[in-house]
């Protein structure tokens, strides 16, 4: 399992789109930036969310959608408005200066250029965003039941092997600003981890440098690897005590995002987990504390 934290960004939208009245078009929106969440919207049109990182979701309609760093979504948009041109907008979220990029949704029989104000992003950022994320549900009809390595497709009934709490931080180590997880800032080794593991090369990485819970220790540098066993089913808690949104990506795996919350995580929060129709995804945002 390899989690990475995604950090920085740029806003790009192709200039003009073109569509026929009455038809429905699919848009796939990816945030390929490194630090900034974005909000996506189309003037005068509802967006039907159908897919999030490979999971089919309950098809709710949205006026705008937050897409965090590393995330991808698919929406369907029906051109059901009077034939003219409409703004397509992406703007940065949770930033002091809001950067906005626009493009044009052009109806084939359009008789008017874009007009009116560029539709605004939702006002209250972090809370709104978390509420929206909670509305994403697995579509249990289209994500048909299938066995997983634990022998059950009911993820909510599998007992986790263990709980790992990962807290991100930005400490100074040897006078340099570093990003750290549970007080350990990762150092990329010269020998690739998989080679070191396969050929049993000692001294490349350590499996005891990173604790499974946040530690109060001073931050250190290490090539930290967390050991788990095949078929383990792990509860991972991301604790963000910083004041910026974080994005965590699990390389090569997906995971169920069973809950979002504020403040410090406690075992009591398990009562509010969605153990029925949470979606599996590869990347999750973690709201600031
Ligand atoms: C689930 O997905 C199917 C398409 O695969 C769709 O027809 C159905 O409306 C979806 N269910 C909900 C509740 O959105």
From TrEMBL:
**What protein name does the entry list?**
Plastocyanin-like domain-containing protein
Instruction: Extract the PANTHER family matched here.
Output: MULTI-COPPER OXIDASE, OS07G0119400 PROTEIN
Q: Which Gene3D superfamilies match?
A: Cupredoxins - blue copper proteins
Kindly list the GO molecular function terms attached to this UniProt entry.
Answer: copper ion binding; oxidoreductase activity
What keywords is this UniProt entry annotated with? Glycoprotein, Signal
- The residues covered by the Plastocyanin-like domain are 20-109, 190-288
InterPro entries assigned to the protein according to its UniProt record, in alphabetical order: Cu-oxidase_2nd (IPR001117), Cu-oxidase_C (IPR011706), Cu-oxidase_fam (IPR045087), Cupredoxin (IPR008972)
Does Glycoprotein count among this protein's keywords?
yes
| Signal peptide boundaries | 1-22
Annotated coiled-coil segments of the chain:
none
Q: Which domain of life is it from?
A: Eukaryota
Family the UniProt entry places it in: Belongs to the multicopper oxidase family.
